[in-house]
Amino acid sequence: MVKELEPLKIDCTVRLMRGVRCTAPKKHAPRAIRNLKAQAQKVMLTKDVRIDPQLNEAVWTKGVNHLPNKIRVRFNRKRNEDEDATERFYTVVELVECTNFKGLNTEVVNEDN
């Protein structure tokens, strides 16, 4: 029996440098974006993943070679309103501003907030 998907928001911390180890420095930022998309697909069980422009700018702030070590993101699974869409849900990956990563765990965000 397969569980039906519902709209959901999850906040988690992603270590960007872990995913770009053993790659050429000129490919660090594009590889980090690909890794973010892959993690969103795995966590939210959707194939259609969209990166928020603010998150893209945050990854590219130090240039293509040097990435921020960690970044806090929100995976937001939404219902697809397009009639022609093959997938019923899509995921938007958004940046969550934070100054300190200490003690932050993966948590489900309530719809009330």
UniProtKB/TrEMBL annotation:
The keyword Ribonucleoprotein applies. GO terms for cellular component: cytosolic large ribosomal subunit. SUPFAM superfamilies: Ribosomal protein L31e (SSF54575). Keywords: Ribonucleoprotein, Ribosomal protein. GO terms for biological process: cytoplasmic translation. GO terms for molecular function: structural constituent of ribosome. The keyword Metal-binding does not apply. It comes from the Eukaryota. PROSITE patterns: RIBOSOMAL_L31E. Belongs to the eukaryotic ribosomal protein eL31 family. PANTHER family: 60S RIBOSOMAL PROTEIN L31. This is 60S ribosomal protein L31.
